[in-house]
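User: Okay, second chain of the day. Same drill as before: sequence in, structure tokens out.
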Amino acid sequence: MPKKHLIVLLGPTGVGKTTTSISVSKHFNAPIVSADSRQFFKEMRIGTAAPTPKQLSLTPHFLVGHKSITERYSCGMFELEALELLNKIYINQDIAMLVGGSMLYIDAVCNGIDNFPTPDPELRQSLENQLATEGIDNLRAQLRLLDPEFYNQVDLKNPKRILKAIEICLQTGKPYSSFLTNPQRSRPFNVIKIGLTYPREMLYERINARVDQMINQGLVNEAKSLYPYRDHNALKTVGYREIFDYLDGNISLEKSIELIKRNSRHYAKRQLTWWAKDNEITWFHPYEIDVVLHHIEEQLNVK
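Assistant: Same drill. Structure tokens below.
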């Protein structure tokens, strides 16, 4: 039975994963499975920089725009769907790709989701009441005491992530981050991890330019169309929450654009911090496509 391989192409927001992934996919005849937790939603194409219809036509893509923001979709559901899809791909092909920048979703496919304890409804309700009465700053401070490691990684503007981490800490007496380091589960494929990055200033310039492009493409109108659904978890993300603040009259459009750029840069920094701990990743500049292809070919021959 031939070995099956999964090429994981990851990198921070704005680095150019889509273009590089298409080149790699075409070279190895490897279908692309998306691991971008926001590109799953068909209504969020501009703000997530989803592949264009032309790009999608160049090589097989899966799990892009296949869900609506009105549907519940979790990391655990993604793990099951992605693994089932990979099994189908491997019936006829030996190589597939996983492409994206969502750290937990990539880890779910490569390593499996950690076994968190069953949620405690009363504890969750208590924390939600605390959020409503005391605000997010107190919860941030609580998380910083309970789990400083996860505090330095999490999006501090995302109350759901903060609530979940505190809930696990209080329920188990262990840091939430300790549940993210369980041994890797066996997978029926070999994983080859490729990371894309630029020098920090160049990456930040690319992020700023991409935000300007999103605005020119109609991000504000896209956010307006999604405003009635703003409380959905999928929309509590960079690019939309800042525009919603503008639509609420809290800030100017210019300020919202400035904040999108800043928050996108902060997110890229968190992504790189997360992946810095993963020694399985080999890093390249996106323009080194020939070097990337050669490295993958070497890894395929070794494994």
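Residues 204 and 258 are 13 Å apart (CA to CA).

User: Thanks, on to the next one.
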